[in-house]
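Hi Q.,

Before the meeting this afternoon, I wanted you to have the FE2/S2 (inorganic) cluster prediction in hand. No need to reply - just skim if you have a minute. The sequence and ligand are here:
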Amino acid sequence: MSTPDQTNSDFITVAKVGAIPEGEGQSFQVGDRLVAVFLKDGQYFAIDDLCPHMGASLGAGYLDDEGVVTCPWHAWRFCVRNGKWADNPRLAVDTFEVRIEGDGIQVRLTRADESGRDKDTLSD
Ligand code: FES
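Predicted structure with the ligand bound:
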């Protein structure tokens, strides 16, 4: 796991562009959260790193061609685009905004669903 640089903006740099290989994820401590950042088809996605089942790191899971990550412990599966649990889409892990600023990958800790998306979460 990496520790990101803190900045004064809402977005926090977690890694340099290129640090996360295409089709893989990595976990970062961002403030008081653990966030898993994935690179899928050239686009970055960030979700809560802690699997809601028993807390395994989703950033260490296998990311398939559809953008679904499989938890490394007991194989629960989550879409990295919207955080939804593949076996029960009414439930989801938190998702976070990601942007590229310069050569940095930045994550905004405010949950993406707080900007208007309606969903149920396991962490609420
Ligand atoms: S800890 Fe993730 S499926 Fe069990």
